Amino acid sequence: MSNFNVPKREEVSAANQAIFDNLEKAVGFVPNLYATYAHSENALGNYLALSSAKTSLSAKEKEVVNLAVSQVNNCTYCLAAHTAIGKMNGFNDAQILELRAGKASFDTKLNALAALAKNVTENRGATSSAVVENFLNAGWTKENLVDTIVLVGDKTISNYLHKTTDVPVDFPEAQPLETIEA
Q: Among 98, 103, 115, 125, which is least packed, fewest CB within 10 Å?
C-alpha cells in the first residue's frame, strides 16, 4: 500500500477546488483518482480536458477501449470505475467481462475495437497489422484508429497513476476476469 494520500478540497489549489466543485455537481463526489491528480496544479485540469476532448468514438465505444486497456494494465481502480460506467452505457456484466478480455462476441464492430485496444496496449503501440486490418474491415475509419490510440494513452495515464499511488478504490469492485477465461 502506498503512502499517497487522497487530497481533500481544502488541500488543493483554488483552480483544483473549482474542478472538485464541478465534479461534485456532475458526479456526486470527487473520485479518489481524480483527487490524486490534484497533487499537481495542472494535471487534473489537463487530464479532464484530454478525457473529455472531442472524439469520433461514442461514449459506449470509449468504454470498450477503457475496459480493454485497464485490464491489460491490471488497474483495479479503472476496472472498477469503468465497469460501473460501462453498465451506465448499456453493457451487462457478461459483456463487460468479454470487453475486458479484448473481445465482443455480441457485436462484430465492437469486437474489432476491443481487439485493437488490447493489442495496442499489450504491444505498446507496435500493433499487429492483422488487428488493424480487421479493425478497418469491420467498418472503422482511420480517424477512429487515431482516436482509439489517443484514448489508449488517456486510459494508460490513469492506469499508471493508480498503479503508482495505489489510492483506495471508491467504486464497486470489478468481478475477476478469470470467470470467463476458464
A: 125
Cell of residue 117, nine digits: 485496444
**82 found inside a domain:** yes
Grid cell, residue 132, equals 488493424
Query: In whole angstroms, what is the distance from residue 59 CA to residue 163 CA?
Result: 25
Burial environment of residue 151 by CB neighbours within 10 A (0 to 12, 13 to 18, 19 or more): buried
Q: Are 73 and 31 part of one and the same domain?
A: no
Rounded to 5 degrees, φ, ψ at 172 are -60, 140
- Both 21 and 65 in one domain: the answer is no
Question: Between helices 142-165 and 43-51, what is the axis angle to 10°?
Answer: 150
In this structure, what DSSP letter does residue 128 have? -
Predicted confidence (pLDDT) per residue in 8-67, tens digit: 999 999 999 999 999 999 999 999 999 999 999 999 999 999 999 999 999 999 999 999
32 and 92 inside one domain = no
- Residue 102: give its domain's CATH number: 1.20.1290.10
Task: Tell me the residue range of the domain where 32 lies.
Answer: 9-51
